[in-house]
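YM 10:42: Holo-[acyl-carrier-protein] synthase sequence, as discussed on the call
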Amino acid sequence: MIKGIGLDMIDLDRVKAVLERNPRFIERILTPDEEVLFHGYKGSRQIEFLAGRFAAKEAYAKASGTGFGKDLSFTDVEILTGQNGEPRLIQPKRTDELVFVSITHTGRSAAAQVIIEANERRS
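YM 10:58: structure's back
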């Protein structure tokens, strides 16, 4: 059973501008393991990665019904890369949920969708 669906989209130029004004934006959005992935990219690909993770984390917060605030921050949500290059939500790890993440980029924007499903075997 689906528990929540979240969708978010962000302009790449907006992310680039924020990052140029405040390089610590990376630390606010990415976990240490995500930062390692970020630094493995160069130039515009870094912006796409950061924007994609931002959008995916926003989509997760929407799907979970909490939004970001006192109970959830950007660094509480970790999205790493699976064996085939697919995004995988690692944290928050909730055994009662299955989380599906999709991230896409165009020349101007990044978007992500998250679907949270009840894990019937564990709930």
